[in-house]
Amino acid sequence: MVVLSTKELSGLAQELRADSLKMIATAVSGHPGGSLSAAEILATLYFKELGFRAQEPSWPGRDRFILSKGHAVPVLYAALCRAGCIEEEELSTLRSIDSRLQGHPDHVRLPWIEAATGSLGQGLSVSVGMALAEKLDNENNYRTYCLMGDGEIQAGQVWEAAMSAGNFGLAKLTGIVDYNKVQLDGRVANIMDLEPLADKWQAFGWHVVDVDGNDIDSLLAAYDSARANDEKPTVIIAQTIKGKGVSFMEDTHAWHGKAPDDNELEQALLELGVGAAQDN
Amino acid sequence: MSSSKHCSNSVLAPRRTTEMAKATRVAFGEALARLGATHENVVVVDGDLSCSTNTRKFSEQFPDRFIQLGIAEGNMVGVAAGLAMAGKVPFVSSFACFLAGRFEQIRMSVGYNNANVCLVGTHAGVGTGEDGYSQMGLEDVALMRSLPNMVVLQPADAVEAERATEFLADYVGPAYLRLTRQALPDIFDADYSFEFGKGIRLREGKDLVLVASGGVVANCLEAAELLAAGGLDAGVVNIHTIKPLDEQLLREVASNTSRVMTVEDHGVVGGLGSAVVEALSEMPDVVVRRHGVLGYGESGTQVDLYARHMLDAAGIAEAARRFLAPDVEAVATG
Predict the structure, then answer these.
(1) Of B156, B184, B212, which closes a domain?
(2) What CATH number is given to the structural domain containing B311?
(3) Which of A17, B78, B152, B294 has a CA-to-CA distance to B309 between 20 and 30 Å?
(4) Does the beta-carbon distance from A136 to B109 stay under 8 Å?
(5) pTM metric for this prediction
(6) What is the dihedral of CA B176, B180, B181, B183, to 10 degrees?
(7) Inter-helix orientation angle A123-137/A156-168, to 10°
(8) Contact A29, A95 (CB under 8 A)
(9) B76 CA: distance to closest CA in chain A (Å)
């Protein structure tokens, strides 16, 4: 894979945002806010951090990425498309009948999806299982990454999984919390506050890195920090902005699960600086 | 009982059992430990119940492949799905009720992913005994059966439990194995061959057929003897594969007798009885009586509870007589 510069990765993140919004607008349903907040995370993972073969989704040595916050799947489909796994034409089938691009990730229909998610709180457990399998074998040397939503980690199962990962010392497991501070009903701090979040993960035996999750270099440094720790699982608390990159979608729950209309899409694409809505 | 040196609890055999009798959970644990040697990808996932589910033997022989996840069954089910999707063959053991309680994780992480996970639920039904309702699996078959790709197996004795376990080690896809806490009399010989998806006619009868699964099958055979003494000819079919159900066999036996009584140590909603009713729903001349557990369970010895819920031989025979009573009266007065 060609090594991309920070600027190029930043540009890719903007492309992923634009693709996500176009897909959601075409489907007339979907979740823009949490897709946009995670764009830099997906760009850095798929174009720098993860080892995989675009045309061989079941290659045993691939790094595993589990999108536990399954509702943000448009940004994952966009990344898979830009990475050469799926064709661009398929993006417009999001959420339509017979599409492999289900409203939430579907492992059986789309082989690049490592695990079905969307019922929140379950992805970290599945990730722990995959990391355990890697540790059991020493045959396939891979790392496992799990992206969680901030609202999602209100679920008890996440902490069961966190406890088990700490207990087993799964150093090749990296959790990422997309801490965009906003969930469906409003602000996370008002609904069920997570703080002190770093302390919680530390107490469960995790190496914690707290970074600007919309900054490419900060994320890359966080992945390096995770790799450097060979005793504990790492959680990257990615401080992000919900709806990042589109002024009227930023930091509000109003755009958690609402599709933009034609005018809104056009304005969003203009703000993102990646061209008009010609694909629609 | 061959309990491990680390496990203090032992199985209380019911009074009327034979010397050879063994709980299906014990037979499962022994089979699993044997399979560990031949199936390198088999791993066992347990949540602080290995002494009760009998996976302890496997854990002692293959400590690296035994994953203890503590009392956190939701995570346990998800971890198993991850292990399976990474190429392992996980057997997840817990009590039937605790697995049923994690139906959300089972439907999402196991079922929807078509993950090759074998869920093993022990302590089926009121046979669980003294611990009472909170430890009794009474809704598990209903839930597991509802998932499109989940197969559901329930052996009737130790030999069948061994064979079912061996079958599941090679089967690919989500599966549920339901086992008893209590020891069961032997029904099958050691050379018994397990045929997935096939019901077994254990006894022919022309007045009615008892269609049973699990720990009550032996009691049905005994009940058929009691009924025969009273002039009623009852057949017995063992359904070790509740899903996929042997509908062909059921239609055959139903058309022979037109009276079917299902017998199971499970709630009467959604279990074997419901599955049989669904299978025979388009046979207008067939009447099906679902005999199983009504209401929540309670504490008591397994023997007392089987008597209370009419799941012992006498109770099953009495339930069959009541079911056939109109016919019997018609014969008597005709």
Answers:
(1) B184
(2) 3.40.50.920
(3) B152
(4) no
(5) 0.94
(6) -150
(7) 20
(8) yes
(9) 7
Identify the band that residue B14 occupies on the pLDDT scale cut at 50, 70 and 90.
very low
Task: State residue B87 phi and psi, 5-degree precision.
Answer: 100, -5
Q: By residue range, what is the domain housing residue B238?
A: 200-333
Domain boundary residue among B184, B212, B245? B184
In a domain, B326, yes or no: yes
CATH code of B102's domain:
3.40.50.970
What one-letter code names the amino acid at B303?
A: V
From B73, B160, B162, B264, the catalytic residue: B73
- The answer to whether the beta carbons of residues B9 and B1 sit under 8 Å apart is no
Q: Quick one: CATH architecture of A6-272?
A: 3-Layer(aba) Sandwich (3.40)
Other C-beta atoms closer than 10 Å to the C-beta of A95 total 19
Q: CA-CA distance, B334 to B327, in Å (whole number)? A: 10
A→B interface, C-beta within 8 Å: 60, 64, 106-108, 114-119, 122, 124-134, 136, 156-157, 160-161, 163-164
Total tally of structural domains belonging to chain B: 2
Torsion of CA B79, A214, A110, A101, to 10 degrees: 130
Cβ-based neighbour number of residue A244 at 10 Å: 21
